[in-house]
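sorry to bug you again but im stuck and you know this stuff better than me. what follows is a protein written twice so to speak, once as letters and once as structure tokens for the fold. mainly i need to know what kind of three dimensional shape the backbone takes. anything you notice is useful, everything is just below:
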Amino acid sequence: MRRSPRSLVLSTAVAAVLALGLAACGGSSSGKSGSGGSGAPAKNINTQPGNDINPQPRDKIADGGTLRWPEAGISDQLNYNEVDGTDGSVSDIMAAVLEQPFYADSKGVPHNNKNLVASYTVTQSPQQVVTLEINPQAVWLDGTPVTEADFEAQWKALNGTNQAFQVSGTVGYDQISSIKAGAGPKEAIITFTKPYSEWQGLFSPLYPAATNSDPKKFVNDFKDAIPTSDGPFKLGSIDQTAKTLTLVRNDKWWGDKAKLDKIVFLSIDSDAQSGALANNEVDLQYGIGSHVAYYAQVKNLPNVTVHKAAGPVWANLTFNGAGTGPLSDVKVRNAVTIGINRKQIDTAIVGPLGVSTDPLNNHVLLTNQQGYQDNSGDLGTQDVARAKSLLDQAGWTSTDGGKTRSKDGKPLTLKLVIRSTNDTDKQLAEIMQSQLAAVGIQITIVPVPGSDYYTKYVNTGDFDIAPVTLGGNAYPISTAQPVFANPTTGSDGTLNIQQNYGRIGNTDIDNLFMQALSTMDRSQTIAYANQADAAIWKLDTIVPLYQRPQIVATNSKLANYGAPGVQDTVYENLGFVSGS
């Protein structure tokens, strides 16, 4: 995303990649496979609205069929709200099984999901009160009605007051003062302590009171299991040997009957998914994103459509600022941030996908969201000379002309942990290694199995720098808050980081997020969000790289799925066009 100095010397392999990236910016951005390169200028995908999902009415979709959906890995923890369950595979699976109160459309505007919330009202004075009228037909798999008690139990589990619940985030739930039944158990009255602007994103999805009322059940009941459902699908089977999880139609479902008979989630390494799609072993490949090799393999496949949209996720470098390592010093973090050339990285990684992008300079709002602005200040542009000066100030000095640095006899070496099977991680690591050598920072690249990357390294803090992809959606502020929340220590000494893998934060950032989420004035909310972002840049524990293009290859007959952008997927409407 940023300029590199003329003096920067890259390895032959990396230089070739960069040249490819620059050349590829003129490629086609067509969503149809087999279209090849048209020579048209690449569009900046992050400024393109909407999505690309092959929308089809239900009467055009065949009744039946199996959707084969690959995941890089399937988490054994299927409670998305548990600290170890915040995983893309869990989101994909549980969105088919559990309902959420509101669905976002293609523009990110939330609307009530009438299968769960038949209607709702909101009052703002003297305090914000949301009343949800729960669909009278809504039941759990065992026939137990979905009621106010389910909303109340989830609030109590996630509001942070009971630290026995190891949760992935408390935002929003910590601003509710009470949830109680109204005229009956099918009416939930939610009262907030102060206005909360992104309240529609709460309870997404809604887990049952049966598993939210006990910290042990919160962890254990969804461990390699899905004990219940209130959505169009339910668990069919989990095959540990074949590494598959199969969902089948929920016969207790009261909404539109799912068009598909089954959805089979298969654990397939990312590098093998393109081949599986080519061999008709799966029906889609989601994680193409910024993977040039994947895109090259799928763009001309017969009977496959490549969908492109502005992605709601962003790639970044996360610094581990905890402990006494070099990155615990903000000057060293700053030196790394301005020692790399983000524009060069972005061009190399995203350019060959037939789209262009610019450095993402905001940690909260994406480039195509209202209120986005660049808050990076003097950390937004590569500055090798200043990076060297910052390292000198931090006591990391050089005796060999800047090739290496040391302090108290210890060399300045940072461990960059990457997924061993992820080509983009490898490419990024090599570019960074070359760029940071120019300021005297030595990067040791540590490849680890993809299945261990988060559980054994990122989640536990066993890294100095880690490439992380973070998600966004129609609720950008509440989504970002757990990523930057100041970690807290529980009574048992356990550090709850939520999603703050860098492990440091401050009260200024916490307060700005709280203010952003506490006003119903959208312009003021955006102002606070940008102030929070400026404070995050000052702390400098996460360096945004680029907003990732959402590139998804699917069976050309697959309807109502592709590159959804910020739109929620309606699983009962997934299926194959009639006659396929």
Notes: Confidence is low (pLDDT under 50) at residues 1-40. The CA atoms of residues 251 and 555 lie 27 Å apart. The chain is about 25% helix and 20% strand. The first helix runs from residue 12 to 24.
